[in-house]
Each structure stands twice: as structure tokens, then as C-alpha cells.
Amino acid sequence: MGRGTAKLAKFAQKYDKKVYAIDTFDPCLDKTVSKSGVKACDVYQAFLKGRSMLEAYQESTRGFDNIITIKEDSKKIRFPEEQRFVFGFVDGCHQLEYVENDFYVIWPHLVSGGAFGFHDYKFDDWPEVTQAANRLRHKHEKEISKVYEIEGKYNILSLLLIKK
Predict the structure, then answer these.
(1) pTM, entire model
(2) What's the rounded Cα separation, in Å, for the pair 11 and 64?
(3) pLDDT tens column, 46-82
(4) First to last CA, the chain
(5) Predicted confidence (pLDDT) per residue in 129-153, tens digit
(6) Which residues, in sequence order, are CB contacts of 66 under 8 Å at separation 6+?
(7) For 33, which DSSP code?
(8) Is residue 136 within 8 Å of residue 123, measured between CB atoms?
């Protein structure tokens, strides 16, 4: 809902860097169903408590001038070939096809030594994230210098890949 984007933007300000956030801000887009039968869109709606996702995001990111928000489906986004990123983080739709798509939106533009992260890795509720991340990790293993599993709140892991 923008809190992670705000944290990244605060950190990026120290280095005069920008943060790109791509989102439709439509909580109903994520049709992923957890192992326990809960729909991702219902989880988002519960957190939003009647507010729009865009309103929640704007509230969380207010005051940052280094955030470039692209209100679009990530499947429709392509960056110019010369675009470079030092960090990319996928924390969007939990469906396998979106996780893989979002990786390819960023990975070709990631600099050597840059980091790419997957949120909700090895989180039982969203196994498609783990499946996609493991498949991409294996497919691109020759391009990866280091791999880290980072534990976060609520036993949610992130997988971080460092590009050679």
C-alpha cells in the first residue's frame, strides 16, 4: 500500500536516486488463491478498510519527490534499452505469470552488482511466487553471483539475487 515504496524512496534520497513503482492500484487484479482458500484480493480489501488502494499509496508516499509512479499493468510496461537500475523488487500480483513478467521488466536493465528481490518468497500462502522465483533463479544462475534469503516480519522471506 506504499509503505515499502516510501522506505525505499527515503533510502534512495541519500544517493539522489529515484524509485519506480508500477501498479494498477486495483486490488481485485490479484486473483491468486492461497493454500487455505483465501483470495489475495480479499486480503488487500481487508487492509484497505474501504479506502482505494491508490489513496492508501498516495498517503504513504506523500512528500517524496523521487518516486515515479506508473499507474499501469506491469505486463504493459517496457523500459528503454538504455534504462539502468541498481535495485529491483517484486511485490505485486502473486500469480506465477506476473512474478515472471515483473522479473523480466527489470532484470535486463539491472546493472552488474545490482540486486533483485522477490517478496513473499517461501510464504505458504503464495506458492506461485516461490515457484516462479526458483524457476527464474535456476534459468539465470549463470548471471547471478550471490543469493540471499532474508527473513522479514511474520516469517515472510524475500529472495535477493545479485547480478554478476
Answers:
(1) 0.90
(2) 11
(3) 989 999 999 999 999 999 999 999 999 999 999 999 9
(4) 31
(5) 999 999 999 999 999 999 999 988 7
(6) 9, 12, 13, 16, 17, 18, 19
(7) B
(8) no
Q: What are phi and psi of 68, to 5 degrees?
A: -105, 110
For 49-118, the three-class secondary structure string (H helix, E strand, C coil) is: CCCCHHHHHHHHHCCCCCEEEEECCHHHCCCCCCCCEEEEEECCCCCHHHHHHHHHHHHHHEEEEEEEEE
Cell of 29: 487484479
Long-range contacts of 40-43 (CB under 8 A, 24+ apart): 40/93, 40/94, 40/126
Report which secondary-structure segment, H or E, holds 151.
Answer: strand 144-151
| 3-class SS of residue 18 | coil
Residue with cell 549463470: 142
Query: How far, in Å, CA of 73 to CA of 36, rounded?
Result: 27
